[in-house]
Amino acid sequence: MSKIKVIVAGALGRMGSEAVKTFIEHKDEFELIGAAVRDLKNVSDENLEFHKRNNINLTDDLNALIESGEADVLVELTTPDSVYENSLFALKNGVRPVIGATGLTVDDIKELSKQAQKSQMGAILAPNFALGAVLMMRYAFEISKYYDKAEIIELHHDKKVDMPSGTAIKTGDLMEHSLGNKVPIHSVRLPGLVAKQQVIFGSQGETLTLEHNSIDRTCFMPGIRLSCKKVMELKQLIYGLENIL
Predict the structure, then answer these.
(1) Per-residue model confidence as pLDDT tens digits over 220-231
(2) pLDDT tens digits along 143-175
(3) 160 a catalytic residue
C-alpha cells in the first residue's frame, strides 16, 4: 500500500507540533510533504532547523502546498478564523481535510459537507481525537436515556481560544436527543491543564459522573493517524470520531 501524503496546517501549535512528530515517527505509513504556519518570519531558528533536518517543507503559503497536487490529506489544526477557508479550499483542490481545529459553525459544516459530496471526497471533523473522549461521548448518550438532568464541565489550558470546547458541544448535542433539552455547559480555562471533561447526571438521591482527562497531547495522535487512513475511503464528511471506529 502506498504511503498517505499529508500536510499539517498549524504545524507549530501544541497539537500541530505533536502531529508533525507523529508523522515523522510513522514514515512507513505516511509521507509528510509539508507543514504550514501562519508567518514564516516568526519561526525560531530551532524550529527551522528541525524541519530542515527532517526534510519537511515548512511554509506560510498553505494554498500553494494544497495546489501543488501532491497531498492526499490536510490535517487542519489551525484556529477558528482560518479552519473553514482552509478546509473548503482543500476539498475544492482534491485534498481530504481531517479537521481538529474548532470554531466551525453549523452553516460551515453544512457547506463543507456539500462540497465533500460534490467532490466525492472524504472529510472528517473530529471535536476530539482521543479514544477515551469518544467513548465518554458515546456512553453519555446512552446514560442520557435513563436520566432527566445532566450538566457538563469542561476544563482546558488557558491558551484555548474557543469556549465551550467542541467536545463539550458535541457531547451536549448527543445527549439532547435523549434528554429533550439543552445541557448546561460550564467552561474553565487555567494554566496547567490540557483537556478534561466531566458529564454529571443527577436524579433523586444519586449522581453519576463520567470523566475523561487528557494528561498529554500524545493521546490525540492515534486518532489523527486513524482519521488520515479512514478519510481515504470516504466520499462524504463524517462528524465525530465515533462514526469511524
Answers:
(1) 999 999 999 999
(2) 999 999 999 999 999 988 889 998 999 999 999
(3) yes
Domains, the chain, with CATH or none? 4-125+218-243 (3.40.50.720), 131-214 (3.30.360.10)
157: annotated active-site residue: no
Beta strand 4-9 with 30-36 is: parallel
Given the residues 51, 156, 212, 230, the one annotated as active site: 156
**Given the residues 21, 160, 196, 229, the one annotated as active site:** 160
CB within 8 Å of 151: residues ≥ 6 apart: 183, 184, 185, 186, 199, 200, 202
User: For residues 200 and 207, is the Cβ–Cβ distance under 8 A?
Assistant: yes
| Helix H or strand E segment including 124 | strand 123-125
